[in-house]
Design brief:
The structure is a single chain. The protein has 246 residues and is mainly α. The chain folds into two domains: 56 residues, no CATH class; 166 residues, Up-down Bundle (Four Helix Bundle (Hemerythrin (Met), subunit A)). Helix 4 runs antiparallel to helix 7 and helix 6 runs antiparallel to helix 7. The longest helix has 32 residues. It is elongated.
Length: 246
């Protein structure tokens, strides 16, 4: 079926429903409905199946490794949490077998010094969290200061704990003396090892930060370093309560 128009009459005089279909009804017409013509032709195929009605294909998004990195760190932290949970359960079982804990011939643990060290480590964890938030908000200088503070407080924690150990060894508490010394040094020593590794990680992050490796939109290294540091910070109060206070 074709539409017959009066000589000299434009397509604008046609009825609306006819004018809407003129791109397929009037042979050879190439008037103002170019967009409709394109829809009929399609995207170069001419069969109308890939026409302009369909939105253009968007380019494939590049996969980001951020999610995989965070997931890997979470899995690692979970395995470390199982390790410390095993140590705490072992400590509870060993202690339950002794009527007196600690043994009367062994030195008492320095509770006040360790309490001070707990505050130091918690302060370091707070500074690390603040550094992460500052980076997300684009506050580079604030991030640098807080990250430096977190690292220095972590080092101070290790120094204080080292001084504590030297004094305990001088008082006769050694890892080979009895089960009390063995349990103490294994549990606290394992945590100290994790703090040492985490401090090395913070030093590495701080070095890369100084070279401009992190931006508010891309700071995976800072995030993962903060996650591991937060783990060792939160484990310590639990150990402090079980080993020093109970």
């Amino acid at each position: 079926m074709s539409v017959v128009t009066r000589p000299g009459a434009g397509t604008d005089l046609l009825e609306p429903e006819v004018r809407e279909r003129e791109w397929i009804r009037i042979p050879g017409f190439s008037g103002g409905n170019a967009g409709l013509d394109d829809r009929d032709k399609g995207n170069g195929g001419g069969d109308g199946r890939g026409g302009g009605d369909e939105p253009p294909e968007s380019p494939d998004a590049k996969p980001s490794g951020a999610g995989a990195n965070v997931l890997g760190m979470l899995m690692f932290i979970a395995s470390e949490a199982v390790l410390f949970l095993t140590l705490i359960v072992t400590f509870a079982v060993v202690r339950a077998g002794y009527p007196e804990w600690p043994p009367s011939d062994q030195p008492r643990l320095p509770v006040m010094m360790s309490f001070f060290n707990t505050l130091v480590l918690l302060g370091s964890g707070g500074a690390m969290f603040g550094a992460w938030r500052s980076m997300r908000r684009g506050r580079v200088q604030s991030t640098r200061r807080l990250l430096t503070a977190a690292t220095l407080l972590g080092i101070l924690f290790l120094v204080v704990q080292g001084v504590e150990w030297v004094r305990l060894i001088d008082f006769g508490l050694t890892v080979t003396r009895n089960i009390y010394g063995a349990v103490f040094y294994v549990m606290i020593g394992m945590h100290a090892l994790h703090v040492f590794i985490a401090v090395l990680g913070l030093l590495y992050v701080l070095r890369r930060f100084g070279r401009g490796a992190y931006t508010p939109g891309d700071h995976d290294g800072l995030t993962m370093g903060g996650m591991f540091w937060g783990f060792v910070v939160l484990v310590w109060p639990v150990l402090f309560v079980f080993v020093y206070l109970l």
